[in-house]
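REQUEST FORM: STRUCTURE PREDICTION
Request ID: SP-0412
Submitted by: Lab K.M.
Chain count: 1
Length (residues): 209
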Amino acid sequence: MSEEKEENFHCKIILVGDSGVGKTSIIGRYTKNYNENEKSTIGASYSSKNEKIDDYTISFDIWDTAGQERYKSVNQIFYKEAYICIMVYDITKKNTFQSIKDYWHKAVKENSSNEIIFGVAGNKIDLYEEEEVDQNGVQEYCDSIGAIFRTTSAKANTYIDDFFFELGKKFVNSDLFKRIEPEVKYKKTNKNKNKKLEKGHKNNKKKFC
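STATUS: Completed
RESULT:
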């Protein structure tokens, strides 16, 4: 009996943005728990999912924060130790993008203990005919803060998985990742048993040749 070493790296991700922009639905799509009639988050909720990125196993610990005004001060405790922040706005409501510029980005930066990686999701792209936000303007803003910008749709499942993977890839290639200690687990394996099975398989092949 021998032990096989498994390394798992944890990455805390927070989603922020005004109430109703689709943060919970985005997480639901990514973790395969999507509910079209999802209610607004009260306080915060937690989900997780493992990603294989560049031969590393990354455990995304995902925190969904409430967007209502009364929860803003409470949310700040969830920004600590985050490595990735996805700021979400509703493409059909210009004020939700303005909130990212006026409040969310600053609030996360001031209350995070890490050099956080930012992503901006312009959600509900399935409603593109009602779009109020100029994407060129969003891209210019994202370039100015070093954020990755993508348009998404939780309802149509557009670019959700790819966006998380892309942010995870940036995380793995960052200086942040080099400073993280992995969670190590040991899995018991029976190599002798496997050798016996292989030997028996070879003997059976000889019998029927």
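NOTES: Residues 205-209 have pLDDT under 50 and may be disordered.
Reviewed by: T.R.
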